[in-house]
Amino acid sequence: MKKLIQSFSILCLGLLMGLGIAGCADITIVETTTSDANLYSYLKKYPEKYSDFTTIIDKAGYDSFLDAYGAYTLFAPTNTAVKAYMTQLGKSIEQLSKDEAQGIIKIHVIRDTLTTRSFKDGKLPLVTMYEQYLLTGVTTGAEGASYTINRQANVVESNIKTGNGMLHIIDGVLKPATKTLAQLIEANPNYSIFTQALKETGYYDTLNTINQNVNKRFMTVVAESNDVLAKAGYSSYAALKARFSKTGKPASMNDSLNIYIGYHIITDAKYLGDIISASSHLTKVATEPTVVSAKLDDQAVLLNDDVFNGVREPGIELIRSASDNTATNGVLHSAGGHYNVKLRLPIRIDWDVCDFPELKKLTQYYGKKNYQFPVGTVLQDITWANASFPPLYVYGGTANNAAKRDYLQVPMGVPSRNLWLDMKTPIIPKGKYKVWMCYRRERTSNSFTITCTGAIDGEVLPRPFLFIDYVPSLSAGELESLGWKVYMSPGTDNTTAGRLLGTIDIKTTDRHVFRLTAINGTHSLNDIDMIQFIPVDQNQLVPRHLPDGTLAPN
Amino acid sequence: MLKKLIYNIIGVFALTMPLLSCDKWLELQPQDGIVQSRFWQNKEQVEAAVSGCYASLIDGLPEKIFTMGEIRADMIEASFKITNNELDIINSNILPTNALTDWRDFYRIINYCNTVIAFAPSVLERDKTYTDVAMKAHVAEAKALRAWMYFYLVRLYSDVPLKITATSSDDEIIPIPKSTQAQVLEQIVKDLNEAEADIPATYGAKDKDHSRVTKYMVNTLQADVYLWMDKATEALAAANKVIASAKFGLVANTAARSNTWFYTVKAGNSNEGIFELVHGSDYVLRFGVANYPLYAIFGLGASSSYRKFQATGYLTENVFAEDVIDPTNYDTRGDDASLTTTTSVIRKYDRTSGDTPFSWIVYRYAEVLLIKAEALAMLNRGQEALDLIKLIRTRAWAIPQTEKSPDPANIYNADGVMDYILDERAREFAFEGKRWFDVLRHAKRNNYKRIDLLVNVVARSVPGDRQQSAIAKIKDPNSHYLPIYQYEIQTNKLLVQNPFYK
């Protein structure tokens, strides 16, 4: 009843409105698509606030493009801010040359519309027209919290939408960085040892150039102050050189001092907010690709804080207050401790695929009973193609002859189930390894089959394998020559199959991505116990594993 | 129902009037005077209007108060069905254009209450069977509900327009400026004191005593409001009134470690419940889902693609923790009660098919005890406060890992009695829409002496690449309150935006 009346009244309303309009309203045709002012016109509307900035825009000859169709973000300083800046400069606006005026405007304009939603602890996603990044942040002052731009200005009014872009009003003029990374480091007397090392290794020049190609221009330096070096036992450059420079020629790329400095330079402009958003970063070490790992622990940004082969190695913290300094060609951070490349020799890695944090947190399941990850689960280090087929953790109890008596069951297959499954490996030191897929053989029924291949960082390992294959009944030596082994002790259970996938040359000491790809068949009960990376020059067969998770004596 | 209908019709005519005027095709007299005198005729109509206030509470309010009470705190995180507006709040990126900052849900209910308060007395003359006592009781109910709504508004927005007259015609839609938080709180206290005098202690039936405002709901609300105002003596007195009534108690859980007590509480009408929002039997029609009404935000079991929010790791690891030495030990409020730890699904409000949906528990006796503990602590009676926490923990079979033994003399400092109360409230009232207000209340006490509580909440719940910005923002007290929604700012020129959202 109510509905009926409602719809009737809406009908009436529509009818009467139609009558009303037709009856007496003049029809005006709107000829513009929007009545919103564009950036420049908007500023012009409030001369009491922005006249000085618009004068600079006029002077630069940018009034027409800031009023034309497009998508920009403009940070507009108020009159007070511009006046303060001009006093500092010792000039009046009239005395600015066209180039100077253009420079001032360019650092305030980004070619995209960015609202405060894009403001993070770090750089804005795009460079300004001046080709420098802007750093955003928040500070709390006497008048409350506000966004800051480049630590030079506070945002006093934000997200003003104009016809051709987003306008933010700031209380200071943005000043582009004028020093290169090299100059920035040299200007700080507390980096004197580090500066000398930069000069002697030749990296000073690298850090002092501005590459004309914006995509290759930016670098990030993590500098060690004299205090940090003194604490580590190097109170002078001589002491540092004596410890590191084995060849006596720091400029040579094989010299350890050269490597030490190269390790402190990261490619690309990475503010702290960018550093923590990736787990490792490529450095400029010249001899080979080398990465430094990064993470956020509570509020601390840590470098090289890793777990290697089950042992936690504490890293160093970046000093927030002394970091995030913008240079013309990159960012400068300050290290809270001395750190260097870790020399890691190839070592046998028996990667237990059930050893990941989300599973270990489930203490009532991990090492106790099966756990089916629900559909929709998101794991940090494991991803799979088909959301409907998440992995299953199987804990088999004493009857299960697998290492730690558990394994990860991953449904694979074409076209149903998972076409691929990615897992992030633990840290693998640079070197050549044979990769062994160690699985518990299982098969639903004879109508199912599954062939998979493995790949590391996209490089496909040559040997496909089937999760449904038993270890053939051959001697250990014969098996190895065919790429087979029994990975569980004492080496008789033919359901505990180790299958050689191929040899891989790991180029960087880092965590890598192992991808399992289904190439034929479909099957759910694919039980991965571990994936072994065994250096090529080591024994590939022993030691074998015991079900309690330890290694059997040879 | 009838009222709504009439309003609809008036609305249509009111809208069309100006359009028609130039035609003089159809001339109509304003209708509102007639409607008012036709409606407020007898006591049944007053009853209906009061029922309307309650009905409007259950429509969407539980989701609103859940979201607003939890989203800025550290116990829920985004899941698959999260919307951009919600994500922005989680990322500490609140803008006045965010529709979740719209306060109209609260003001709509306030206006229903204002209408009852304004017109119920006039019915006395027209309906001789309507007694003065009954009329005063109706007004008291409306005043209590209005106070409750304003209590949400001051905690969410701080300064808000104080509208205490009914808007029953278009002439009365006038813009009003914001009142300060202190002024609004004063009105809340006044409303509650007046309500307390006239409101019944019972409505003669168990379900009505839980779903309608009683004297004890008023007292509990008073205690909560006084805590927010840092008035410990008054809060203690109000809490003691509820306790002294001897009508309530904790649902017992003595025999063995089991979380069934919790089902008794959430099923409603237990001796622990003080005020509950009851989902009527027509919930399927009204919410469009055959499952429980909050299904859309919590989902169920493995069907995670349906949920907006899920429990955080902080909750399972730190708040409820687990007994690593003896895994058979568990907090009965944790796994399988408030949530499922393995899937992070929030379970506090789920139901098995066929059950009527669980009530939304607004206040329960456990909260009165913990409010009392907080008031006692403020009065430097730390040991008595600790005894009350112990009572709550014993009933819940809390585990030794979450037990603390603070120095009873250390009230406000880190790891003191107050921190323990805050932690225990997190366990006891997980997902009951209280966490953000609890943390804010503790943080702001003594001129923001414990701002670190808020900083910690933000540090662990905001994504890493926004963490430092979020921490800097939370240090500005204005950021603790929401912006006025853009629509309101545009339509009411007297409103001044919270300076944080410049």
Write structural notes for this entry.
The complex is a heterodimer of chains A (554) and B (502). With 554 residues, chain A is α+β, with helices and mostly antiparallel strands. Helices cover 23% and strands 30% of the residues of chain A. In chain A, the strands form six sheets. In chain A, strands 18, 19, 21, 22, 25, 29, 30 and 32 form an eight-stranded antiparallel β-sheet that branches. In chain A, a hairpin with a 2-residue loop joins strand 4 and strand 5. In chain A, helix 2 (39-45) crosses helix 3 (47-60). Chain B has a domain at 209-430: Alpha Horseshoe (Serine Threonine Protein Phosphatase 5, Tetratricopeptide repeat), CATH 1.25.40. In chain B, the strands form four sheets. A two-stranded antiparallel ribbon of chain B has the order 1-5. Chain B has a two-stranded antiparallel ribbon with strand order 2-3. Chain B has a two-stranded antiparallel ribbon with strand order 4-8. In chain B, strand 6 (339-340) and strand 7 form a beta hairpin. The interface between A and B is large, with 55 and 55 residues.
